[in-house]
Specification:
about 20% strand, alpha+beta, about 325 residues, 4-stranded antiparallel beta sheet, 4-stranded mixed beta sheet, 3 domains
Length: about 325
């Protein structure tokens, strides 16, 4: 049986009236109810109690939003919109106050077992509402990921970590399309980072190949794009994603360090030899062109040998003065 495709929710921004006017109304109702109760007539006392109860119910509709904070409005299970305007507001007092996260073994919302009489456990406790009154922060947030040990494209174990700057863009998707959007962001960030590390080599790729160490900007952009695709389902946008740690795993770090040192020595030697050959060629050409001396093949070979030793040797060269000729 094929699974049903979930239809993504879409945020609808709505406006709710200021709460100051309704606050004055509730105060008037409370004062009127108290006055009727004080008068003492049976029907007036009943009316006063009704007014006070009504005022208490109306007070449940007050809520305040800070800048870059939103409230998702849900009435008896139906999504009615999102309030994004900051300030003091009043809305239908029967709007939902948000789901209660139940404690689960090993879960993030799990709470310790509460003691009861006799020292026995009273069972799982309900955790506080994670998003009271469906208030969601739409500010930018930073996720500083832990170091992960993964294998790169060539199978070498590496340690990698990243920092992700994200924010909620669509509150309806964040609340209704995933179970917990904060946990979703953490899980998908780790999954994307593992996939990214296995898609590139740590270093020493082909000539035009992107590597983790040498192409940090390109790799970070690839991570940002992949996270954007993964987190779009939760109504989350990624502002920035960058690698914060990249190194070989400890078990191969020393071997890789020796390889890097050997490659560095080879590169340096190659440049030295290339420069020495160019200098010898230039010296022989200038001596021949200016007619300083004519070299036969044997003298030219000796000259080249001596110059290469001087230019390429690491130790200090001690010249030997020849008082004769090359042929004696």
């Amino acid at each position: 049986m094929e699974g049903q495709t979930l239809t993504p929710n879409k945020e609808r921004e709505v406006d709710r009236p200021s709460g100051w006017g309704m606050l004055a109304v509730t105060i008037v109702l409370v004062v009127a109810g108290v006055a009727l109760i004080i008068i003492g007539t049976e029907w007036l006392v009943l009316a006063g109690v009704v007014l006070i109860v009504a005022s208490v119910v109306l007070m449940r509709g007050f809520f305040a939003l800070e800048p870059n904070e939103a409230r998702v409005i849900v009435l008896f299970g139906a999504y009615k919109g999102t309030v994004r305007k900051g300030g003091f507001h009043w809305a239908n007092p029967f709007y939902s106050n948000g789901p209660t996260v139940k404690a689960t073994p090993g879960g993030r919302a799990a709470q310790p077992m509460g003691p009861s009489a006799g020292g026995k456990s009273s069972g799982p406790q309900r955790a506080p509402r994670k998003f009271p009154r469906y208030k969601i922060s739409v500010r930018a947030r930073t996720l500083n990921g832990e170091r992960l040990k993964v294998n790169d494209k060539r199978g070498n174990p590496v340690e990698i970590a990243a920092v992700v700057v994200w924010r909620v863009n669509d509150t309806a998707q964040a609340v209704f399309d995933v179970d917990d959007f904060e946990v979703y962001v953490e899980t998908q960030s780790e999954t994307a980072l593992r996939h990214l590390a296995s898609s590139y080599t740590y270093d020493h790729g082909e000539e035009t190949e992107i590597t983790l160490r040498s192409n940090v900007d390109e790799v970070s952009q690839a991570l940002k794009n992949e996270l954007g695709e993964r987190l779009a389902r939760a109504g989350v946008v990624v502002e920035e994603a960058r690698l914060t740690h990249l190194a070989y795993a400890p078990e191969i770090a020393q071997a890789m360090l020796r390889r890097q040192q050997a490659e560095a020595i080879i590169d340096a030697r190659t440049k030295i030899v290339h420069g020495a050959v160019s200098m010898v060629e230039m010296a022989l050409h200038d001596l021949s062109e200016k007619g300083v001396i004519d070299f036969d093949p044997e003298r030219k070979a000796a000259m080249i040998s001596n110059l290469m030793v001087v230019l390429c040797g690491e130790a200090e060269v001690h010249p030997v003065v020849n008082t004769g000729t090359l042929y004696n």
